[in-house]
TrEMBL record:
Superkingdom of origin: Bacteria
GO biological process: negative regulation of DNA-templated transcription; regulation of secondary metabolite biosynthetic process
Family the entry assigns: Belongs to the Fur family.
Lineage, opening ranks: Bacteria, Bacillati, Actinomycetota, Actinomycetes, Micrococcales
Organism: Kocuria marina
Name listed for the protein in its UniProt record: Fur family transcriptional regulator
Residues annotated to bind Zn(2+): C92, C95, C132, C135
Cofactor binding, per record: Binds 1 zinc ion per subunit.
PANTHER family cross-referenced by the UniProt entry: TRANSCRIPTIONAL REGULATOR FURA (PTHR33202:SF18), ZINC UPTAKE REGULATION PROTEIN (PTHR33202)
Cell location: Cytoplasm
Keywords linked to the UniProt accession: Cytoplasm, DNA-binding, Iron, Metal-binding, Repressor, Transcription, Transcription regulation, Zinc
GO molecular function per UniProt: DNA-binding transcription factor activity; transcription cis-regulatory region binding; zinc ion binding
Signal peptide: none
Length: 147
């Protein structure tokens, strides 16, 4: 495990533990993973870890700002380690693949709210929904007439 995570965990005021390091390592390998996906990965290194422990670790790391929780429509919560920017996500409506979108450009969607309702806005979440290139290619192949 890179020293970077150890330092970041300590800087967040948390103790460095094997479960925390294992969860961060799993999410480095599998961005946008669900708790169940994190559990399956972590159990390869820590077979005794429980579902409850995974949720406790995910929530403590999220509260400490080391993880970001994604709440997408019709999907369980997903987690990622990319927390230092205000990036967005593109979700394939066919297969569910999620990709990071570094920056929203152009006029729409608007990232500056017309009304803040007295809130100090920290993050603007934008989710682009569409069909990924793999699913588009499969659809095109399925509709092609064999010669």
């Amino acid at each position: 495990m890179p020293v970077l995570w150890t330092d970041r965990i300590r800087a967040a005021g948390l103790r460095v533990t094997k479960p925390r390091l294992a969860v961060l390592d799993a999410l480095e390998r599998h961005q946008h993973a669900t708790a169940d996906e994190v559990l399956a990965d972590v159990r390869t290194a820590l077979p005794e870890i429980t579902v409850q422990s995974i949720y406790v670790v995910l929530h403590s790391l999220t509260d400490a700002g080391l993880l970001r929780q994604l709440d997408l429509a019709n999907s369980p919560a997903r987690y990622e380690t990319r927390v230092d920017d205000n990036h967005h996500h593109a979700v394939c409506t066919v297969c569910g693949r999620i990709e990071d979108v570094a920056c929203a450009v152009g006029h729409a969607p608007c990232l500056t709210p017309s009304e803040t309702h007295g809130m100090s806005i920290h993050v603007a979440d934008v989710v682009y929904q569409g069909v990924c290139s793999d699913c588009s290619a499969q659809r095109a192949g399925a509709t092609a007439v064999p010669v």
